[in-house]
Amino acid sequence: MIAHNSTTAAFSASARVAMYLRKSRKDLELEAVGGEDTLERHRRVLLELAKHYELTVTRIYEEVVSGDTIEGRPQMRQLLRDVEAGSYDAVLCHDIDRLGRGGMADQGRILDTFKWSHTAIITPDKIYNLDADLDEEAVEFKTLSARYEYRMIKKRLARGREASVREGKFIGNRAPYGYERYKLQGAKGWSLRPVEPAAQVVRDIFRWYLGEDEARIGVSLIVRRLNERGIPGPSGKDWTPTAVRSILANPVYAGFIRSKSRPAVVTMEEGRKVTHRPRSAAPDIYPGLHEPLISEAQARQAATLLANNKSRPGPKQVAMKNPLSGLVICDQCGRAMIRRPYGNGYPDGLLCSYTSCACVSSTLSTVEDAILEGLQQWLVALDLSLDSGAGERQSAAELQSARTALEAAQAEDARLRAQKARAYDLVEQGIYTPEIFTQRMAALGAELETVAAQISALTAEIERLEAAAEAKAALVPNVRRVLELYPRLQEPEEKNALLRSVLSKVIYHKTRRERWSGGSDLSLTLVPIVK
Length: 531
Ligand SMILES: [Zn+2]
Description:
Blueprint lengths: L1 E2 L12 E7 L2 H8 L5 H16 L2 E8 L10 H11 L5 E4 L2 H5 L3 H13 L3 E3 L4 E2 L8 H8 L5 H17 L12 E5 L6 E5 L3 H13 L8 H10 L12 H8 L7 E3 L6 E5 L2 E5 L8 E3 L8 H14 L18 E3 L6 E4 L8 E4 L9 E2 H25 L3 H37 L5 H52 L6 H9 L2 E7 L13 E6 L3
Parallel strand pairs: 2-3, 2-4, 4-5, 13-17
Antiparallel strand pairs: 1-6, 5-6, 7-8, 9-12, 10-11, 14-15, 15-16, 17-18
Bound molecules: zinc ion (ZN).
């Protein structure tokens, strides 16, 4: 929980911060014999600290009475209410005792409030980040609040977590596979964002399981496929059926947040209260703030299939025999072209899955060869276009305009920070009263928040544009690799995966047979995976 003074990175310039000032009995005694005013001295020290960290102090709580308990300290009561409401990212105080002197129950209540509202405490010596994932440092927190009322804390934590879930925030410590956690900007709590390539693995698992572009395969075949491709599982080791099943059953991928625990049911047994968490009680599910990886329909379909397959030995798993499976689309009717084995030494055919379609079938190997030939031509054309820079110009212009906008936003950010530094100077010189200072800070804080949102949106846009340009450039070596490897592969499934590494689909056109006058009019349109 304790981060030493280096941890300013934890607070952005738009972090909302309050200050709490209080005199102790000892301070009063010292003042009585001619000491300096304690609150003024502490305010000066903390303002210096806030200036150093570039914090936005939006309110100063000054306790003029010196109560021993929370009840005797009206400003502390107000501060706790505001912290509870999630008003601040951090509170500055001269030392931790200023907050928590008094009974252990009081101290527990204060630390507890800061902890579950994810509010940090900043003192000149240390930053107490009680919300940090509890490992070794949790021990220190425990000694600090040794005798707090544990049950109350758990209850309040649960209440805070429930509220977060209802708002669609992510409350777990570890992001589900395919996502990463990020701190929400300008709000309390966390959400999730997809991380590639894991997010794509999740989409693939659903597509394979639902049989969206080939015969559907079961969990164990999915496990085998992932491991064969050398993709590490969520644990960093090999994939297991449990890992795949828990992905297929997790509503988070369709954009939902699940309250972590099953709801508790309290009953009385032999005069004692007993808490059960019945397995049958489904956890509550709320729409999340995060981007889904799959559709709701896909999630429902997967859940149904999982439920049906629980006791029976999954569907019959047929090994893929068609290297072009799900890849070739008929241009007449838009359906997938399928393999037709003829036997008796005749080569396999490739025909439209719509039996009365106007298109004409081909032998599978003819289409396969034509695709490879098409890729070869593609490679030549791509090499040329990259050399001449044609087609790059438009995306370069977009990228340039996004970068210009980002520079402008960064300049605005610097201007607001400079104004903040100026406000600190003015309050130091006594030109600003603490009231005017905090008002000014609140206004600047709001503007900084807007600019921070702009900067993050523009940064994301630039990353997207750069990735698109990179993907296009990456296509050349990928196509080259496909052409090299393809003739050496045996398994249709491997060949299929290889083609899919560069092709999203192939559009098939043929309306005349080879032996008809004019001959075959077979033509293929290769669609790359880049947008
Ligand atoms: Zn067709």
